[in-house]
Each structure stands twice: as C-alpha cells, then as structure tokens.
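In response to a reviewer's request, we include the raw inputs and outputs for one of the modeled complexes. The three entities were modeled together in a single run.
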Amino acid sequence: MPDTSQPTIHSDAPADIGWRVVLPKVLPLVALFIFAVLLPLTDNEYWALITTRAAIYWVLVAGLNLVVGYAGQLAIGYVALLTLGAYTTSVLAAGNVLPPLPTFVALAIAAVAGAVFGVVVGLPALRLRTFYFAMATLGFATIVTQVALAWEGVTGGGIGISGPEMPAPFNTAWGFLYLCLALAAMVTWATSNVAKSRFGRALIAVRDADVAAEANGISKPKLFVTIFLFSGAVAAVAGGLFASLQTYITPDAFTFELSLLFFIAVLIGGRGSILGPLIGTIILTILPEIAAPLAAWSTFLYAALLLIIVLAMPGGIAALLDFKNRKPLQSDRAIKPRPTLLGEILKRSGAGRPMTLKGIVLTFGGVRAIDGLDLNIQPGQVHGLIGPNGSGKTTTLNVISGYYAPQEGEVRLNSPLARGAPETRAGHGIARTFQTPRIVGEASVIDNVMIGGWIEGQSSFVETLMSLPRHRQDERSLEAAARLALRAVGLEELADVRADRLQHSELRFVEIARALMLKPAFLLLDEPAAGLATDEIERLGQLIKEISRQGTGVLLVEHHADLIFDICDEVTVLNLGRVLANGTPAEIRVHKEVISAYLGA
Amino acid sequence: MLASILASGLAVGAIYALIGITYNTMFATSRVMSFTAGQLGMLGGVFGSLFMLRLGWPPVIGLLASLGACALIGVVTEIVAVRPVLKSLEQHLYVLSTLALALMIQQVTAIEWSTEPQPFPKLFGIGSGVFDEKFWLPLVACGLTIAGLELLYRKTLVGRAFLAVAEDNFAARALGLPERNLRIASYALAGAIGGLAGFAGGQLLLAFFANGPLLNFYGFVPVALGGLGNNRGAVIGGLALGVFQQAANFLVGGIFSSVAVFVLFIVVLLAAPQGLFGAPAARRV
Amino acid sequence: MPISVPEPLIDIRGLEAGYGKIRVLHGIDLAIGPGEVVALLGPNGGGKTTLLRAVSGLLPWTGAVRFAGQDLRGWGPQETARAGLVHVIEGHRVFTQQSVTDNLLLAAYDLPRGERMARVEEALNFFPEIAEKRHQRGGALSGGQQQMLTVAQGLVRRPRLLMLDEPSAGLSPVLVDRVLAVVAKLRANGTAVLLVEQLIEKALAAADRVCALAQGRVVLQAATTEADLPRRLERAYFGRDHATALHA
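The model returned the following structure tokens for the whole complex.
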C-alpha cells in the first residue's frame, strides 16, 4: 500500500471543528449557570441559600479538584483552609485585631493567607504518600479548629464571631447569590484552562506515571507549590464567602464531615474532570435538602457513595458522561509507522556530541549492580545493550536518566550531567521509554503524547489560568507536534481515544511518540519489543533505525536478539555490571564468551 | 501531679499503642493501613457499654461479646474494603475504601447509639486515685495483648504463617500457604485487639461515637514514627505519646499538646520517612 | 479404554498467560511423564518463569492443563501444591526471620500435625549441610544454602512434579552440582522435575528432555540424547542459521 501521507503539519484546525469539540464540554456548564442565574424568578430565598452554598462549595472544590482529581493527592482535611479563610475574613472585617477593613480587602488578604497555608498543608505531599498524607491533612484540620477554639481574643473561641457583611449590592440574598455564581463561573473557567494545559497534563502525569513525568522534565515540587498556592487561595475565598453566608461562625461550623463532602464530591465526580466534580458538589449539597428525613444519614450516604465509586465505578460521574469512549475500537487495527515523517519532527542542526559513561559504579546494599562501566553512544547510531538478567542493562539506563546516582563515575554530554536529578534530563535532549509503558491510562493518547512537550511550553501558570495568548499558542503548537509524532509512529487514528483502551503494543509506540516530542538528541529504549508481534517488531526496528538516521543516538536494551543484530550499529554486552564485549553485531555474533554468557551455552 | 500525669498518660498511651498494634496486624498480611482501626477502638467502648449497661450482661460475657463483635467488624473490613482493592494497581484505593467504611461505622453508631458520650461501667471496682482501674486496665490489656501475640508468633504454626505472609507474600503463596484465610484471620485478630483497646479504655474515653478519628490519628502517630509493622515501636511510641500529651495538657493546656504532637509528627516524617519506616522505598523504575 | 500410551503426568495445551495487558505466553504445549526430568531453556524474557507461575496457579491463564488426570482450571497455588505439583520460585526467597525448621514446617502447613516433623526430617535428609543449621534463621544462611532450603521446602510436599525455577542462579559450580545431584536422586525415586536452567551443559546432563521457549512459544523440544542440540537451540532462538563460534 502506498504511503500517501504528506509531511505537512496540520497547523490550525478550522475553527468550526474546534467548536464542535468544545461545545459539548461547555454546554452543560453553561446550562447549569443559566439555570442558577434564573433562580430569582422563583422568588424563593430558600433556594437562593442552597444555590449560594453550592456555589461557595464549588469555589473550594474547583481548586481542590486540581489537588485531588488531577494531582491525585488525598487531601481529606481541606476544611482547614475554609476555616482559615472564614476566620481571617471575619476577624479582619470585624476589626478585632486591626482597624476594620472593607470586606473585599479582607477577602483578598484571606486569599493570600490561604495560598500560604495551602502550601503548608500541601507540601508534605512531596514526601508523604497516600495514607500518610491523608493523615497529615486530617491532623491539620483538627489543629486549625482547636486553634480557633482556643484563641478567644481573636476568634471569639467557642462563642464565635460575626461573618463579614457584604457591601451593596451584594447584601441581599440574590445579590450575594450572583456574586458567588460569578466567582464560581470564574474558577470553573480558570481550572478548565489549567486542566487543558500542559500544567493539567503534568499533574495527571505526576499522579499516574510519576517516573515518566520526571523523565519529561516535570519538576514535581514546583508544580505542586503552584497548585497548592492556587487551591489554597480559592479555598480561603470560599471560606470568607461561607462566613458571610452563615452570618455567624463558630468552630462547630467547620466539621470533618464538611471536609469529606468536598473530598468525596471530587471523587464521585471523577478524577481528571471539571464537570464531574461540579455535578458531585451540587448533588452532595442538595441531597440532604431534598430528602430531609435523610439529613441525619447524609454522611453515611456520602461514605456509601464513595465506597460504591471506589469499588464499582472508579471513573465516577465523568466516566458515565464519557460517551465518546464507549464506541468500540476497530479490532483489526495495525500500527503502521511512517518513518518518512521523522525528518520533520527531529529537525536537528548538525551532528551532536557523543554521550559517554565513564567508570560508573553503582551499588545497592553492597551489591555492585554496575561495576566500572564505560560506554560511548554516538549520535546517529543505534547502540544495542544486551546481557543476561541482572547484568545491569536497565540499571545503566536509569543511571543515564538520573533515577540512580552512581557512587563513582560520570555521564557526560558535552559536560557532566548532574547525578540523580531525573527531571534535568529532558533539558539535555535525553528521552526514554520504559520496560512497562508509563502511560496515563485515563487520559487520551494525544494528551499522553503532549506530556512529552512539557519543557517546550512557554506559558506561565497565571497566563494559563486566564487563557492568555501565549497559553493558546502553546496548546496549538504542542497539539500539532503531538499529532505529527502520532502519525510518525502510526497511531494518529487513536489520538483521541483514552489510552487505557489501547493494546499493549500500541502503548509502546505511544511512548515512542511521547519521547519524540522532545526532539531527542539521545533516545533510551528499554525493551521496546517486549510483548510485540513479529511484524510489529519489524516495523519498530525500521522506526528506530530511521530515528537514528536523523542524528539521534539510540541506546537500545533488548532481549530480542534478532532485532539487536538487525538494526544496531554497535552492540555492548554486559555481564555482572561490566562490559563483556563491545563491537559490531557481526563481531558480537561470533564472540565465544558472549554466547556462553548470553545464551547460557 | 506527676503521679496523675503518669497514670493518665500511660493509660491513654496504652490505648494508642493497642490501636497502633491494630494497624500493624492488618498491615502485616495486606499492606493496607485501614481507617477502621480507630473505629474498632471506638466500638470496643460502645459495645461494652451496650452489653453491660444497657443489656446488663456480666463483664466477662460483655468482654467476649464486644471482642467478638469487633472481630466481626474486622472481617467485614477485609471483605468489603480491602479484598476488592488489593488486586487494583492503584495503591491509594484502600485509603478511600477504608475511609468510607470507617465513616459508615461512625455514622451508624452516632444514629443508633448516641451522639453524646455514654458512661462505661466499672468492671472490678479495685483501686482508687491514680491506681483506679480506669488507669491500669489499658496497661494490663496492652501487656496481655503483647504477650499473647508473642506466644502466637513464636509458638504456633499459624503465627509463623502470619509472619511468613507479612515478610514475603508471594513466596508464602507459592509455598501453598492459605494466604487469603490468613488475611481474614489477621483482620479478625486486629478487630479483637482494637475492641480490647476500646473496652479497656472505656472508663477513660467513654462510649462515644466521635472517638474514632482521634484514635485513628493518635494510634497512627506511634506506628508512623516507630516503624510500620513494628509492634515494639508502636508500644514505646504510644506510651511516650500518651505521657507527653497528658503532661502538656496539665502544664500548658490541651491546644499546645495537639499542635506539638502534630508538628512533631510532620517534622519527623518529613525529615526521615525511610529511617523511621525501616526499609527504604522500593525501586520505582 | 486401552492403556497403550501411559498418560503424561502433566499435559499442558495451548496455555496463554501474562501480566495484565502483556501476554507473555502464546499457546504453550508441553507434556511431562511421571519421573521424567525436563529442562526448560530459553533466553531471558522468553516466558520460562511465567510458564511455571501459570501452571502452579500463581498467575491466571487460559488453555488446558491436566495434572495427574485432574483439570487444573481455576486452581490456586494452595490446591496445586496439595495435589503434588510443587513450584520452587526463583531467587532463594526464604523467610529470613524464621529458623530453617520453621521454614520447612511452613511448607508442611496443611499436612496433618503429626506428620509434619517427619516430612521436615525427610526433606532435610537431602541436604545435610542445612540440616546442621536447622536452628539458625533463614537470613543467616548463605545464598547457596538458602537455595537448598527452598528446594527442601518443595520436597516437604513429596511432589509428583517439582518445578524448579533457576535453582542454580548465583551458585558456585560445586553447589550447582549439589542441587542437580538432588534432581538426579528425585528422578531415581520417580519424581518428575521441570527445571529452568541457564547453563545448557548442566541442563543437558541432568535432563531427559529439553524444551526451549523463546518469545512465549515453544521453539524446540528434543531428547537430550539427540545430536547437535546447542546449535539447534541457537537457531531456534534466533530464527535463522548463522555461523557462530559454537560450531565454528
């Protein structure tokens, strides 16, 4: 079959196609908003109250959604930031400490305080995992309530304090409702922008494939600080609004149940979605109201919902609404790479320098996994790395990509690379794939590939929040590059499919496409042929060979001896962490020691 | 004052230690930290008060029934919240499933039992002042539990099978050990230990539905600091935590002690997560 | 029913297995007769360990496996071990905190209480060097002794088919011969053995038959008496004939 594909970039999709994609996503949000805006027609202030509460909760949950739903951090004590915001705003507006401030100024100061404490609550997430982090946030929530109780001079202790009064025109039930709705609409818009940006993709990459995230240059600390600043600020603003809605607050108003409502709203809604958690928040806010006899059981219902979600419906409401991914995929599809496109992707100027490993020693608890390894990888060549199990092949890749810091020796690429520090490797043009594909199953294929372009992004977080031109430019160029990379590996038809629906062999090619986003000077492939069918291995071989012909140095760890001998320019054999032999495939093929070590003959 | 600080501190500390052992016992066979650990402690007190005060059963029957009921809750935890998520690749799911179950337990208790703390009966009426039974009962319970567990792990094949599953689950399965039944048994055992904590501490903590989250947190602190799965660490850490907390309570007030415990918890975990957990993190790549 | 051909002890047909989405075995056919020693060879990643894990019930599989006349579908490791199909996993994973005797007693977990110690002694008889250390912790043994201990754990069950996954990995040549001597002894007693072995010469010496796996398929089955096996094996792995040092 002739390959008719032209090496052109589909730069800008026509505007109407963009709308056709965007509209179904935006429509439910707009409908909800219009419904809420029209509520005054009912002239029922009770419903104004409920809707205002839902809007305030959503302001907090929208931020929390980035922490829980996108970054996957189990922050179960977020009520602490609501409490903090509520008290800060109330105290400043009441003038307990300073002269009374206007409510909106107090609210702004509360936002700053919330941002700071958001980081304080959140940063343990960098070191503590799952249960530990959940416990830490739970502990923090307890502390904040106790401080509010004890600090009587400022907070009024158990007696409480008046909430801030809103200036006109927000001092009526309907005026306040519109204020809260406007804020809710703003955070929805802002978090949607983040979700559809390199930041949103980086967050889910950290959540589901943190090793791959690092390899693509994503720095978890920086990313998390940004997210915790934002979500802490909006949570505190929600707290100020909450205090105003309550008109009077005591520590009792900030129960752990409320914290769970926020947390569970995100999970019921579904991770990695904006609409789902919004619906979740509305349901959880309204549920006890429309079923008054159930009010006492509301926490039980939340918990039961959570259990059902975890056990039976891990995708939450968002998965229910994801009609697109229910369509069956073509079952007899084949991966047909187009190596001719590689020239356009890997436009590199001139030949680079080789990568050299010198005297690498790496020990694990006294065992020398790598024992004085020297290696030279030339640009434009495929370099095979073979050897028996435990000979140090993957470990070598991990030293190069910085997951392991060797005790001795160095990896040089022009200059020595930092020991450890995997997130620095992408900046040096070193890309890699993994033995088990590290893919975000819940994200689309193209989103996965776009993760590879993280360091190419120019837009800052604030620009992204407000969808400023640089953000839109980033998105356009990343998407075009990702589609091109997918065409090159032969998966463009699956671009918008959720990645966990793909076959194993396809995921291997998705990883290669993601690696190509970096325009890598060096590409490290860890057993890319494992689990592939014979014809797929052949196409993989051609693709790898063609990648190297564009000037990229490829380091290939592989068990399939025929693939190694077919496409490598040079082969290094490792045994017990040392180089056993080095040479052309033909030389290695007849090397006596190699055959006995590798084949066990 | 020192005597009363020590008496109440060691008593509360023994309860924390027992909850810590509850966490460890569940963790050993399943690698799961369950939010139901604290609820089991809460239920030990509630069941004790229910059986002995409301239903008027004699203490021995009340104790056995409470431990049995808590063991059953332990088994339910395994079946409902642990087994279904063990196979999942996502390791955080157990946090959510056990949290959900713990909340359901707490809410049912609040509605069906009471939202107010209810009294717990005196069992022996021996001792007074700092030697009141409410102070020494938890310590005795803690001592008996440790001795019992030592006996189980050192002298019986079932106990050794627990240890085998805890050390190397895969090798234990390959050897043909009934890994699933051992896990269920360990959850029943953990349930009974948690129940014993609540029962022995009933006169101190009362039969109160909201004890669960507190016990969850303060029972977890010694486990996290002393080393996951390490009962000796849990006991030493628990007793130290109890005494520290009571001393701070008496000397500078309760708020300070909560803040101090929390800050200590976070700082130690951040400074040396591996050092205190024992084994370093597994290979990621 | 005529009993012309003795029924194999284990009969594996069209076995497929893997990890999650990754299918490692693509239709394995293999039969082993009672008392037969079969060496399982092949390059890394070929599927040897996966085959053992699937058969012993540690991994889910599809296809058909019959052992001693019983269908193994749905059996877990506990059931297969009880039926006499015993799997000694790779990597000498003993329980380091427990004594040698306790390690062996654990292997006797579902035997009648009165029989356990006798079985432990029986297994220790094969390995005098660890019998001496029966009160030491598993973690205090050397790697080779730990490997012997895991084999002894398997023997406690009095297996009809013993599957050994790389028992010689990381052992000195002397110890490899010790382990393989036990295999020979077992064969003499009528126990079938499926042996994963990297060292071809050792495997050929110890086994009646070899079965080579590459990329999840059986690429060669032959009696060890057949001529020119190393070369045929190599050809089987690489899929084509090359002049190599092995027969240059």
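As requested, we also summarize the result in words. The interface with chain B takes residues 20, 56, 58, 76-78, 80-82, 86-89, 93-98, 102, 105-107, 109-110, 116, 153, 157 of chain C (CB under 8 Å). Chain C is about 35% helix and 25% strand.
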